[in-house]
Amino acid sequence: MSLTCKPKYGFTLLELMVALAIAITVGLLAYPAMNTYLTQSKVSDAIQSVAPVQSSVVNKIASLGTTTGSGTGVTVPTTLSRYISTCTVSANGVITVTTTSSAGAISFTLTPSYDTPTETVSWVCAVSSSASDPSVPNECRI
To answer: Is the pTM of this model over 0.70?
Structure first.
């Protein structure tokens, strides 16, 4: 009588536990980076959603020829984005936006500057606190 050994297929419990430990470690290391990335994308969405308000300010600057008084009479839609909590426009066209808590409750300003010879308007984005820098796009960092 001859004995033959059948080959064993599958993984041992130890191999499965090691693979699980590696997967959990990678997940724990990736979570903070992913969370920061998601907040950045929400803030970027909020910045893009303010474009209609920026257009209104630019039109006012074009008619006045200056930023002084360019925010007077500009109306802000009540719902710009699900990530915007408040949005206001100052008399000089400075747009102040605060995001919702799901987007990090970050406050930033969009300030227009008008170049008279070329008749162009450029915008400067800035956050109110350097602590918000990791959560905002590069152009808004302090």
So the answer is: yes
